[in-house]
Amino acid sequence: MTQVMFDLDVLRTFSTGIALGSYARAADKLGRSTSAVSAQLKKLESQTGTALLRKSGRGLVLTDAGETLLAYAHRMLELNDEAGAALRGADLQGWVRLGLQEDFGETLLPAVLGRFARAHPKVRIEACVARSGELRERLDLGQLDLALAWDTGEQPLSPYAERLARLPLLWIGPAAPERVEAPWWTEREHHSPGTRPRKSKEPLPLIMLDAPCPLREIVVTALDRAGQPWRRAFGSASLAALWAATSAGLGLTVRTPFGLPPHVRTLDRALLSLPALPQISLVLYRAQAHPEAPASRLATLLREAVRQHVQPMAVPGRAG
């Protein structure tokens, strides 16, 4: 049986077209004609012996085989690019001080720092995990070169900040459905002697980070405007503690879909009569307009990792 040897250039075209949602856009980005891109896709399907794309309305969607190949294409291209970066940056030296919020510690940090360390073994990295306000303070004091943090739009972005994505704030509860109790969002009758029964909403048990927390202010304001009473069910300075409390069914919390652990899940706010919440920005902060080479390279890897992680979350209707 003849061994298939995939062309990385063709795989990059295939991957770029899916990422951009259009192979015409991919042709523009890659500097090729649409006919050349079409020929590359035909070559790829000929090599695999199966259809990779199918029509859906006016667009194209991946077949099951296409989904499988795309996953391998990402891995092959990442390894190729990592090898190229390692050869180009083998002599890169220095150090980078990176700050990020707890959301990204398990989802981004291992993969990004692993790739960076393999490609640039002579560069030393110092990483710290803190909340957004502290990270910005450390940047202002010159204690960090880069920081990845959420921004709620309360203050103008610093001149060296780059918005990488906007994600919805979602209501989050335990993964086990039986731990979400109806009294949180239903009305309950109250009986007093000699008076007619009256209905009132039960206070929503809220699980949030301790103040100061911009998300806390957003959530409380939305609940107050909706006339939904609430109570503080659990508070902590640790995001991991919030996930544990939410998983145990002590109440509901609010976060973006980025980095949710498996023991919690997003909830249908309309079904639970909870108020809609806004989107917030994921921002990469730089201490300088033009960082030194090590920080610049790490910033590039962070952008790529965020893009890959966020892309599957861009699902219509998830904003609640």
UniProtKB/TrEMBL annotation:
Superkingdom of this protein's organism: Bacteria
Domain HTH lysR-type: 6-63
Pfam families per UniProt: HTH_1 (PF00126), LysR_substrate (PF03466)
Gene3D superfamilies, alphabetized: Periplasmic binding protein-like II, Winged helix-like DNA-binding domain superfamily/Winged helix DNA-binding domain
InterPro entries to which the protein is assigned, alphabetical: LTTR, LysR_HTH_N, LysR_subst-bd, WH-like_DNA-bd_sf, WH_DNA-bd_sf
Keyword Transcription found: yes
Keyword terms of this UniProt record: DNA-binding, Transcription, Transcription regulation
Descriptive protein name: DNA-binding transcriptional LysR family regulator
Organism: Acidovorax soli
Lineage, opening ranks: Bacteria, Pseudomonadati, Pseudomonadota, Betaproteobacteria, Burkholderiales
